[in-house]
Amino acid sequence: MSRLLIVHHTPSPACQEMFEAVVSGATDPEIEGVEVIRRAALAVTASDFLDADGYLLGTPANLGYISGALKHAFDVSYYQILDSTQGRPFGLYLHGNQGTEGAVRAVDSITSGLGWTKAAEYVIVSGSPSKDDREACWELGATVAAGLMAG
Question: What is the pTM of this model?
Answer without folding.
Answer: 0.97
